[in-house]
Amino acid sequence: MSIVIKKVGKREYAYLAYRSGKRVVHKYMGPVSDPVVAAKRAAREEEKAVPARFSLLFWDADPREIDVKRNARYIIERVLELGGLDAVQWIQRLYPTGLIIDVCATSRKLSARSKNFWGIWFGVSHAH
After folding, report:
1. Contact 49, 63 (CB under 8 A)
2. Dist. CA 38–CA 128, nearest whole Å
3. Which of 44, 51, 102, 114 would you label with 70, given CA atoms 20 to 30 Å apart?
4. Contact 11, 31 (CB under 8 A)
């Protein structure tokens, strides 16, 4: 999903664009000047980068250079191993639960203790 800005005359309007099958759907959000729309745009921008409050989890990299789409596995592993509940909630909003469970199950970087905890947390049956 992304936010598309369309200009009509001198006004700008925001639309939420997403795929529905093979179609691209544009859902009207409102005028860009609306504070609610501005807040939603700011929230979407935050989803494109690691929030500053979690930058300590990524001490070995510049958090501004981490791409949340390309580096999903790295982000998930780091949050599951070192992050708190607020960081886990952030990745759950960012990534599908299936991907998080898959990373947890297949990661070589997560400790056995973390794998077991998150397996139980997410209700994976093979967790001990």
Report:
1. yes
2. 46
3. 114
4. yes
126 located within any domain = no
d(CA 83, CA 117): 13
Residue 32 and residue 60 in one domain:
no
Instruction: Please tell me whether the overall predicted TM-score, pTM, comes out greater than 0.85 for this model.
Output: no
Q: Which domain holds residue 86?
A: 52-121
Q: Is residue 39 domain-resident?
A: yes
Looking at residue 11, its amino acid is R
Q: Which of 89, 113, 93, 118 is nearest to 103 (CA)?
A: 118
Per residue of the chain (128 residues), give pLDDT as tens: 678 889 989 999 999 888 888 888 889 999 999 999 888 888 777 677 888 899 999 999 988 889 888 999 999 999 999 999 999 999 998 898 999 999 999 999 999 999 999 999 988 866 55
Place of tokens 């929030």: 51
